[in-house]
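[audit] Reproducing an earlier prediction to check determinism. Same input, same settings, fresh worker. If the tokens differ from the archived copy the diff job will pick it up downstream; this log only records the rerun itself.
[audit] input (242 residues):
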Amino acid sequence: MEESIEINGNRIRLEFVKKPWIRNSYLKFNGDRLVVVSRSERMMQKVVSSHRPWIARHYNQIRSSIRMFDSNSIFYGSLKYNVGYVQAGTRAKADMIGSNLIIYAPDRTAAERLIDRMVRDDTERLVPEIAAAKSKQIGRPYRAVKTRKSRRWGVCRSDGTITFNYCISMLPKRLQDYIVSHEVAHLREMNHSAGFWEVVSTLCPDYKRLRRELRDYDNTRRRVLDGPESSRHGAMGSIPGL
């Protein structure tokens, strides 16, 4: 069930998830919606009431974050691109005009898939090259580099397989470098010990600042294209003003 709570003048949507078998309640944000998980409705209300400062702090952090996917826009590198949609053709294609990305597709679902494919292709082109250089630097080869949709930026398994978030290519290059450095460092240290961070500092000396900066980026995959169907001849009409 969904409700909402007002904290410091902000109306925050709540989603209650009842799991009678769990012992401890917990909170997590899914985008800007707060998910409350507990074994009973009474405990759900209690955990929300007792964690209002935590909720307010994290909600403000989310609101001030850079949304990499947003309504009619995406964030690429250090720039925000307006995304427009034109209903046309049988296969989706894209055209970049300045800071405007125009997607031509038979429907919005196909257009959204094209956005994902473009982002993933860029990541699969960029990340292995960075990972290869970093792994060579510490003398620890990886087994494979993969990409997938995830809220996490990366995961390194003990078998040497590193999986990166498919939208890493949307980040500035300095943050791409930090994320890859972080995961490659796990090839030597499968933990977050002091020794691990020493390896990270070797690969990315400015990692402390970049780690803080990365927290400003929200990689939640939101639907980009909305609104009514565009005219087949009205490409620019569907693009919001700069």
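[audit] rerun output stored. Observation attached for the diff report: Confidence is low (pLDDT under 50) at residues 228-242.
[audit] end
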